[in-house]
Amino acid sequence: MQPQTQLLHQEHWPTTGFDSVQPGVFRASTVFFPDMAAWRQRDWLSKDRFIYGPHGTPTTFELEARIAHLEGAAHALLCASGLNAIALVHMALLRPGDEVVVPINVYPAHRALLTGELASWGIQVALYDPTDLSTLRIGEATRLVWVEAPCSITMEFPDVPAIAAAARQAGVLTALDNTWGAGVAFCPFDLGIDISAQALTKYANGAGDVVMGSVSVRDKSLYDALKRCSARFGLHVPAGEAEAVLRGLQSLAVRYAAHDRTGRLLARHLAGSGAVVEVLHPALPGACGHEFWQRDCRAAAGIFSVVFDAKYSQQDIDGFIDALQLFRIGFSWGGPVSLVLSYGRDVASLRPLAGELVRFSAGLEAPEDLLDDLSQALALLL
């Protein structure tokens, strides 16, 4: 046998008896079948055996199992991003003529998907105010109701069980963007939600270097519908990226608690600064939906927004942000570095804003250093 042939047909190093902190990383496109009988019995909906790289490897199946366990689900499916997870739910469950109901303050990228591709496919969109459930209208064409708990910019926290109960009574499914809760703050299924989607990009990964999403369900028929759609579109995630999220999950609870503590500390500091007229953080008394957060949640994420006094112009706020040294300007959140972004006054909000809205994401820096950084930048405004 020639050397190049031997290189391709050597037996794999046996792994039986080997155990370590991290699971193995299995990368594959082609997966070998032991015989034709096994090939003929392949089932893309089953995880009993491996079929092809996009179907899954031991690494991606391990991550899906851990995400399902974390969120209190029975099944989970990995997606290329958080937005891809949201899109998969729509593509798998909605058809032309169907209606989806979403909150007015929905995640902007989700809104763009709704008004772009979904509208062109003949799917109708209805809006509701998550702080006023009398606006939640579920009609004959409604097939899906989305919930954000909280909105990721203006931070209103809705009455999730009430929304889920209204949808269930009408025979309609509910889906929740669980990126903020990350499987730590609350269990969406215990609140009556049918589908949980999240961006593993953020808290699950925690390093700011992976883009990935997931969809979790308890109902097997829902999982099958999602898996079929995912397979038909050829959606999958690389094993190396999955392994990075598996590493992140091991410290998720500790990191989430640290983000939570620092976020509340920074929010209170800004509330007393004299430059801010409103702090938007569901865990703080007086915030919109605080009573629902207090009833349903065990913790809070490290993101929050503030509204500055109307006397400060956009130029003033941009100067404040540019003066910050530890808070970096950028999208996303949940990573080790603190972030800040200004959304101005025109962000999709349930009410007019008094001034410029700025969102902060608390990282893992020493809280006292972040407080000092805020103080020196605020001094330019006061």
UniProtKB/TrEMBL annotation:
GO terms for molecular function: cysteine-S-conjugate beta-lyase activity; pyridoxal phosphate binding; transaminase activity. The keyword Metal-binding does not apply. The modification N6-(pyridoxal phosphate)lysine is found at K202. Its cofactor is pyridoxal 5'-phosphate. Signal peptide: none annotated. It catalyses: L,L-cystathionine + H2O = L-homocysteine + pyruvate + NH4(+). One of its GO terms (biological process) is L-cysteine catabolic process to pyruvate. This is Aminotransferase class I/II-fold pyridoxal phosphate-dependent enzyme. It comes from Ramlibacter humi.
